[in-house]
Specification:
alpha+beta; five-stranded antiparallel beta sheet; 15 strands; 58% helix; extended
């Protein structure tokens, strides 16, 4: 329930040792680097003063190697005999064991894999081109004429096709005035394959007449030296056979190299880690001999960083943040609340030094989520599915937190389902009524069933909303109080808290409740115009402040969405239960019920799970955070090893 205190960090080392220092800090995973521009000089001037460190050449080279490594990984993965399991946990690898010799061998594997991949692509493209050529030559097979054109001293010839639907008699009549010959070589249902021969003086005119009738010259060449179409087909077939043999050889090599896939993946992750370090090194300020690093370190990591730098004999300092600083934000919550931190990050991190509402928000998120999806069956499925995913997939970071959060919310759904009788909606009642003829099945809800008693459930929804809003005002009261503005806290937030508490107490003790409501109203009227100098304006602004109650009522009514979401999932589930039990109790009826029940409730769970997540978050972001939250912070992002396939130790 707090934001970790940050220390401004500065370290000075020899420029030649800067890379080694950055590698060590990357392993520590606790320094958020920033660029200190106070001592930078123009990079285009020659000076011994500090300038920004440039690693653009190394970044470009590493990025290029990473692209080739990713290509090699994708290529070898396609030849892996046993595909990687989705639920296999990533291996842990020590960065210290990946020495230069290992990197050289890994790069050799990457380069060879990319070379084989390029060769295979080229061979397959050439084979495809040859097959297309054979397809084009196939209709001219057995025809001993050059394609598409040839000429002698006085004549010229061209081979091509016409549509089989063409009336050739009309074409012959058009060509009759020319010194030419039209020879039909082959005819199919679609095309006429012909050879047109004419004197050179009449050739162009004849081709023009043919073209007007749809004549298309042959698109491929085959000379007498090629052996005409037959000879060229054989040549292409020989090329295809040679290409296929080479393809088989290279693919066998790729299958054998697939055993090196793990090494390639580790190398790709190593390059990703190095790329992150190189990009971070550009935040150094350097002179000809020294390098300065600045950034932020959590207070609880100060000793670890100090111990590392003491071993290196580097100069360093830690300072408290000043008022005009903008340190990054690292949330510090208990194990339960920490799982809900991604909800905060989806909205916007709080400002450094402000109030972290995660602990209180997580409790309300847990309760409201359960009320919106109050069902024992859905809750158990959600929790079981998330816990199994965590166990098998071994997710990291916010993915693990989100899965854990949904698993916890599944527990809330289960508890609320017991209280309000949700067991896959009303599945037990539907089975007893439609299968066994029980007219009045027993009520399973410990409190009441929202399907038959929606008004009490609306009261519960609004009651939770009222407590949620009062907590928001209480947090604002605390924030203003600790800032030293105690009277502002009492007048601006305390007045409303007293008024709302009084309204709630009216339900059980009317006299006491009305007295508190009157006190709250009086405090608002007398204090909300205190900034005004004129006595009448003070009173007018105080009375006008009571209009804000409309906004609070609007906020409170927003919590009726708890009722809406809760009833939606129950009603849709109830419809599927009725549909599934219509055929009655028989072999067919049981099979039909299982199919409808499974498909229907999984669909209902998926749809309402999304709606529940969105609307529960909305109540936090709009109604709750809107009363006190100071957003705009930047999350703490330390320099760390980055990886996709393995975990670097």
């Amino acid at each position: 329930m707090a934001i970790t205190k940050m220390k401004r960090f500065c370290a000075v080392t020899l420029r030649r040792d800067a890379e080694e220092m950055m590698r060590g800090l990357q392993k520590l995973r606790c320094v958020d680097l920033s660029l200190d521009t106070r001592n930078l000089t123009d990079e285009n001037t020659e000076s011994d003063e500090f300038q920004r460190n440039s690693r653009s050449a190394d970044i470009a080279e590493t990025d290029s190697r990473l692209a080739k490594s990713s290509k090699a990984e994708e290529f070898l993965a396609s030849f892996e005999k046993k595909s990687s399991s989705l639920f296999k946990s990533p291996d842990e690898v020590s960065l210290d064991r990946l020495d230069e010799e290992w990197k050289t061998e890994a790069w050799k594997t990457v380069s060879e894999s990319c070379e084989i991949s390029d060769k295979l692509s080229s061979l397959k493209a050439n084979a495809g081109t040859a097959k297309n050529a054979i397809d084009s030559l196939e209709p001219w097979k057995g025809i001993a004429y050059p394609l598409p054109e040839c000429e002698s001293r006085d004549t010229k010839a061209v081979c091509g096709t016409l549509s089989a639907k063409l009336d050739t008699s009309a074409l012959d009549e058009s060509l009759s005035a020319l010194a030419c010959v039209t020879e039909i070589l082959r005819k199919t249902d679609k095309d006429i394959f012909l050879r047109f021969v004419a004197l050179k003086s009449d050739f162009d005119i004849g081709v023009g007449i043919l073209s007007s009738s749809g004549f298309i010259p042959c698109s491929i060449t085959a000379s007498a030296e090629d052996g005409y179409a037959d000879g060229k087909i054989k040549a292409y077939e020989k090329k295809i056979k040679a290409a296929e043999a080479e393809i088989n050889r290279l693919e066998e090599r790729a299958v054998n190299m697939a055993s090196e896939l793990k090494k390639v993946r580790i190398y790709a992750d190593l390059l990703t880690t190095e790329l992150a370090r190189l990009e971070a090194e550009e935040k150094l300020t350097v002179s000809s001999h020294t390098a300065i690093l600045t950034g932020w370190v959590p207070q609880d990591c100060e000793n670890a960083v100090s111990s590392f730098l003491d071993l290196r004999s580097d100069a360093y300092s830690f300072e408290n943040a000043e008022e005009d600083d903008s340190p990054p934000v690292k949330l510090n919550n208990n194990k339960f609340s920490a799982q809900f931190e991604p909800v905060i990050e989806l909205y916007s991190p709080p400002q450094y030094g402000s109030f972290d509402p995660t602990a209180i928000m997580s409790l309300f998120y847990f309760i409201i989520f359960g009320l919106m999806l109050a069902d024992v069956g859905y809750g158990l499925l959600l929790s079981l599915g998330c816990f199994v995913a965590i166990k098998l997939m071994k997710p990291r970071g916010n993915t693990r937190k989100m899965l854990t959060m949904f698993a916890l919310c599944g527990i809330s759904c289960t508890v609320m389902g017991v209280l309000f009788g949700g067991y896959f909606s009303d599945a037990p009642s539907a089975i007893m009524q439609n299968w066994f003829g029980v007219e009045s099945p027993p009520e399973l809800a410990l409190l009441f069933n929202p399907l038959t008693s929606p008004i009490p459930f609306l009261a519960v929804s609004l009651g939770v909303g009222a407590v949620h809003l009062i907590c928001a005002l209480a947090i604002k009261f605390y924030v203003v109080w600790v800032s030293g503005k105690k009277l502002d806290a009492i007048f601006d937030q305390g007045s409303w808290i007293i008024l709302f508490l009084g309204a709630g107490i009216c339900l059980v003790a009317q006299t006491v409740g009305l007295a508190l409501v009157a006190l709250g109203v009086l405090m608002l009227v007398l204090t909300q115009g205190r900034s005004q100098k004129n006595i009448f304006m003070k009173l007018f602004k105080g009375i006008a402040s009571l209009y804000d109650i409309v906004g609070y009522i609007s906020d409170l009514l927003s919590y009726s969405r708890i009722l809406a979401l809760g009833l939606a999932s129950m009603v849709i589930g109830s419809v599927f239960n009725v549909l599934g039990t219509i055929p009655g109790f028989s072999v067919f009826g049981v099979i039909f019920f299982v199919v409808i029940f499974t498909v229907g409730h999984l669909l209902n769970l998926a749809i309402n799970l999304l709606g529940t997540f969105v609307h529960t978050a909305r109540l936090q972001y709009i109604e709750f955070f809107g009363k006190f939250y100071e957003d705009g912070g930047r999350m703490f992002e330390p320099l760390t090893p980055r990886s996709k396939y393995v975990i670097f130790k």
